[in-house]
Every structure is written in C-alpha cells, then in structure tokens.
Design a protein that fits this description.
The complex is a heterodimer. Chain A contains 17 helices and nine strands. Helices cover 51% and strands 9% of the residues of chain A. In chain A, strands 1, 2, 3, 4, 5 and 6 form a six-stranded parallel beta sheet that branches. In chain A, strands 7-8-9 form a three-stranded parallel beta sheet. Chain A folds into two domains: 345 residues, TIM Barrel (Alpha-Beta Barrel); 41 residues. Chain A is an alpha/beta fold. By secondary structure, chain B is of the alpha+beta class. Chain B has one domain. Chain B contains three helices and ten strands. Chain B has a six-stranded mixed beta sheet with strand order 5-6-2-1-8-9. Chain B has a four-stranded antiparallel beta sheet with strand order 4-3-7-10. The chains are: A alpha/beta, B alpha+beta. At the A-B interface, helix 4, helix 6, helix 13 and helix 14 of A face helix 1, strand 1, helix 2, helix 3 and strand 8 of B.
C-alpha cells in the first residue's frame, strides 16, 4: 500500500515537473512577444469575448434636453462618458444603464417624485433603444447579450441605483421588473427606507437591511432581479447575502485591502461573495482605486491665489469671474496624479487571489463619476483587457471577468426566481 | 510674507480632497398649482460647492449659512452668484428670486444647503423657462437635475454647461 502511494507520488511529481516546464516555455514565448504583438493579441481577445459593463449612470444624461445617444460626445467638453458610437469604438458589447435617483426627502411626496424620475429615466432608455434599434437592443435576459452581439448590436440592460424610488410600496418592485429592470442597488450615499449606506454621515439606521428592505430582497428573488449591495454598509452586505435566496452582486465596488475606503469590500466579504456564488464588479472611480497622493504644487498655487485675493466684498463680478478662472487654471495645471489601469488590475489580482476568478467583473460607473487615465470613457475600455493580458490572464479568464461571471449570476438569479414561482 | 505663508499652511491643511462627491450634482425643484397660485422653487446645493463659488474656499466658515453667526451679507453674496447662473421665467417673465428660507442637511462633505423661494403667480401658467448652470463655471461636468411639478404633471431634466436652459410649455 505504501509502495503504491510512493509510485503515485513519483507520477504526481513527474506531471508537475512537465507542466512547470510547459509553463516556463509558454512564459518564454510570452517574453519574446513585442508590445505591439501583445496589444494586438489583447485586442483580438477583447473583440472575441462578451464585454459587459454593469454600471453606468447614463440615464441621467438621457434626460438632458437634446442629448442624443447616437451622437459621439467629447468627454472633456461635455462630461459625457457613454454613447453608442463610443461603445462601438471601445468594443463594449453590453451595458447596464442604471436609473439613478439621488436620495432626497423620505416622505410620500419625495417617494412619488423619486418614482416618477426613475420611470422617466427608464422610459428614456427604452425610447433610446427603440430609436436606435439598428445598432442597439433592449436586453432582458442573460442570453440576450450574446444574441444581440451576434446581430452586431450593443445590448442595453436596465438597472436602478438606489432603492429610494421603491418608496414604501413593495408592488413597485414588480412594476420596475416589468419595465425591464434587472438589478436594483438597494441604497446610495445616504440611508433610505430599505437599507443603510456605507457613506451616510449620520451612521447606521437599520443595522443593515430594514424589515421592509428584507421584503424587497425577497421580492427581487421572486421576480429574478439581481440584488446589488454596492454603496451599502458592511452590515447590509452581511444581511443581504444571508437573506437572498439567489447569489448577489456588487455592481461597482473594489477591494478594501488594496484601497482602504468604506465603499470597498473587505477580504472577508470577498470570500463570502465567492461562497455565495456572487460577483464583485470593479469600478473606475479614482478614490476607490487608490489613495490620492498629496498634491503639494497645486495646494501651494491655490494658497498663493487665496493669499493675494482682495477682500471678497470689494471684488466686482468681473474680478470674481476672473478669479474662478484662475482657480480652474491651477487645477488644470496641477491635476491629481491619476488612477490608472494598473490600479484596476491590482484590484482584480487581489479579488482573484481572495475570491477566485469566478467572482470578479467590471462596472465602470461612467457618467456617475467613473473614468480614469486610460479608461476615461466607453471608447477606452479595451485598455483594461490589454493590462490583463500583460499580467498573464488567459482568454478564458478574461471572458469570465468581462461578462461571463455576471451572466452566470444573472442566470442563477433567474433560475431561483423560476423555482420560487413554480 | 509671514501672513502669506500662514495662508499657505492653512490652505494646505484644508485643501480639497479629490472627488469630494464624484458625481457633480445639484437638485432643483419647481412646483406650481393653479389652486395655490404660488410658484415655489428650491435649490439643493452642496455647501462645499457654494463656498467654493462664492468665497473660493470649499471649507470656509465665513458665510456660516443657517448658523447664529451668519453674516448679513451672506444672502446677498449667495444671490449675487445664483442670479448669474440660475433663473426661472414664468410665462416669459423672469421670476424675482427672494429667499424665503434656507436650511442645512447632512454632515461633513455631504452637507447640503437648501434655498427656498416663493413667487406669487396668477393662473394660468403656460410656460416655464429654466436656466440652471450653477457651478458649471467651477466644474465642466456639473449636473443640475431639475424636477418640475405643475398642476399634478411632472417632468424632470438634467441641465449642464452644454445645455443650461430649457423651456417647458403647459
């Protein structure tokens, strides 16, 4: 018996030795690859895999009078980060447009207005997909992303960022589902009636999920809407993951061990996410990607401007306007050192290490503050793939990161809903 | 010179961190009902943005809005700025904005200044033209969301540097 074990051990060592030689050889080949070849290989992968971004606040843009998603916009002039031409340029196949309603007063009036704004934004997305049906399609189910990609169209999914427009009426969840909503971020930057936020300056109110929030999660499970815990405080994460019958998502969150921000997720949370079968979608918000280094040159220049200011009461309107321009010029001259795709890949590496390759994705938060050097708008998302290829990620791994993982969760959420409804 | 360096040190200590609130946002709500014949307008602005626009320092305590030590000049300075970047025209006539009340909500970086205006307007209200370009002189990507509720009908829009003005007809 012992001898048999020894034989197996020798065989195992031999297999490990051969496979390590193979890896070394592959690595040598990779070393020989020029930068141009690497980029070409990465771009080919980027084109072949489904690329899905789970979070853009573009519906807010869509209620700007005259804003046309079919036109290309200059992000430096308009602030706009997503339109259909730039999705095509960046080979971004699918996106979740999140109807974002900023938290406001939590009473009947506030709830009614939040619902109306939310519905207006959802209708704007639907109208936009109808008007541009030659290049995009409204997507409702996981497989729609692939079928629309085959047709050469971008897939447009709908989410809601902030459960505030649900108000205190559970039936609104089904109303939004019927409109096409497939995930709901339970809370935003302040607590609401459903849940506690990670960034409410007044601290926790419900200790995570409220009783009504728990009902909303159950209803989302029943209907097949993904439960999104981004923006929630840690207790909300633990409540949602314990309560949800289906895997959950964080549509735009990063790793706290890499960047210490309360909006990011701890290693313990990442591990639980893996056990749950859920997915964390990396976001391109600079503050969540790296700690901003000091910017002494800019601060000194601004301090000099302030020190040389006339008393404000003695300034004319023209002098004030000129001074505002001077401050702007200083900010432009000494921008903060940027967050880059290197930071993005650092977070991905960490999540892969802690939770595994099956539990990470991309949710850029374009039009909601997202956009970094190299991934400033939808036209530049291929740079994420290039950095992943540079770090040795395979096509199969990149396919999971860029959409495969999210689609898997989406399918499971729908399967759970079918089971609950049957 | 010593004074200048003192200012520099103070400024370094209180320099604005990046992306205080990454999505540059303000809210405006306009409401009218023929029954009440009152056009009510309120603006919800981040206090750091207000301070940066008026006194060039996001963390300035000089204007002390809604505090017992709010100086008499605070409202005047606020409206001098607001009137440059915001207006409402009812039936083609510009509404004279007089502050009815103000309040603060939230804390720290998220502190918001609410400014309420009331304007008596006889029915019917046939059109509203709204300009909302507040803080677009500071931030090229400022988003100003405007909610309009007139006689039970609602319409919301986002105004910004590129599209600062919009007219609604009823």
């Amino acid at each position: 018996m012992l001898k048999l074990h020894q034989n197996y051990l020798v065989l195992l060592l031999l297999v490990l030795f051969i496979s390590s030689c193979k890896e070394k050889s592959a690595s040598s080949d990779a070393d020989a690859e020029t930068e141009e070849e690497l980029v070409q290989r990465a771009l080919a992968i980027h084109k072949e895999v489904l690329t899905l971004d789970t979070h853009a606040d573009t519906p807010l843009r869509m209620i700007e009078p005259g804003f046309d998603m079919a036109e290309r916009h200059d992000p430096n002039e308009t602030g706009s980060k997503v339109d259909y031409p730039r999705m095509k340029e960046g080979d971004l196949d699918a996106i979740f447009f999140a109807a974002f309603v900023a938290q406001d007063i939590r009473d009947d009036d506030g709830n009614t207005r939040a619902k109306e704004l939310c519905l207006q934004m959802i209708d704007s997305v639907i109208t936009s997909t109808e008007r541009n049906s030659d290049i995009v399609g409204l997507a409702l189910n996981p497989e729609d992303a692939y079928s629309l990609e085959k047709e050469g169209k971008r897939a447009i999914y709908i989410g809601i960022e902030n459960g505030y427009p649900i108000g205190d009426d559970l039936s609104n969840v089904e109303l939004y589902f019927n409109k096409g909503v497939r995930y709901i971020t339970l809370v935003h930057s302040s607590n609401n009636d459903l849940a506690d936020s990670a960034t409410d300056t007044n601290g926790a109110e419900h200790g995570g999920l409220s009783d009504f929030g728990a009902e909303v999660v159950a209803e989302m499970n029943r209907l097949g809407i993904m439960v999104d815990v981004s923006h929630g405080n840690d207790s909300l994460f633990y409540d949602a993951i314990a309560l949800s019958k289906a895997p959950i998502i964080a549509s735009h969150s990063n790793a706290r061990a890499v960047t210490d921000h309360q909006r990011n997720m701890t290693d313990e949370m990442l591990k639980l996410m893996a056990e749950n079968g859920g997915v964390v979608q990396l976001t391109m918000l600079a503050d969540y990607l790296r700690e901003a280094p000091p910017n002494a040159e800019r601060d000194s220049a601004i301090a000099v401007l302030r020190a040389n200011m006339k008393p404000i009461g003695e300034m004319t309107k023209e002098e004030k306007a000129a001074l505002r321009q001077s401050f702007q010029q200083v900010n432009e001259k000494y921008p903060n050192p940027p967050a880059t795709v290197t930071h993005v890949a650092d977070h991905i590496d960490h999540i892969v290490e802690v939770a595994g390759i099956d539990h990470v994705g991309i949710g850029c938060d374009f039009d909601g503050g997202g956009g970094i050097e190299g991934v400033f708008d939808a036209s530049e998302v291929m740079n994420i793939t290039i950095e992943l290829v540079r770090r040795g990620y395979t096509k199969a791994q990149i396919e999971k990161i860029w959409g495969g993982n999210l689609i898997r969760v989406f399918k499971e959420v729908q399967a759970v809903a079918e089971k609950i409804q049957s | 010179m010593v004074l200048q360096w003192l200012f520099i040190l103070i400024a370094l200590g209180f320099s604005k961190p990046e992306a205080t609130h990454p999505l540059r946002l303000s809210l405006c709500e306009i409401e009218y009902s023929s029954g009440k014949q009152i056009l009510s307008i309120n603006l919800k602005l981040f206090l750091t943005d207000v301070n940066e626009a008026i006194v060039f320092d996001p963390y300035s305590k000089e204007l002390a809005f809604c505090q017992p030590n709010e100086p008499a000049k605070a409202n005047k300075m606020l409206m001098e700025y607001v009137n440059q970047f915001f207006y409402v025209k009812a039936n083609g006539k510009k509404v004279e904005l007089k502050i009815k009340r103000k309040k603060l909500s939230g804390e720290g970086e998220n502190t918001a200044l609410w400014v309420y205006f009331d304007y008596r307007h006889p029915a019917p209200l046939s059109s509203l033209e709204i300009k909302n370009a507040v803080f677009t002189d500071l931030f090229f990507d400022q988003n100003n969301i405007v909610y309009v509720h007139v006689n039970g009908k609602n319409k919301s829009m986002m105004l910004n540097k590129k599209t600062p003005v919009h007219k609604l007809k009823f």
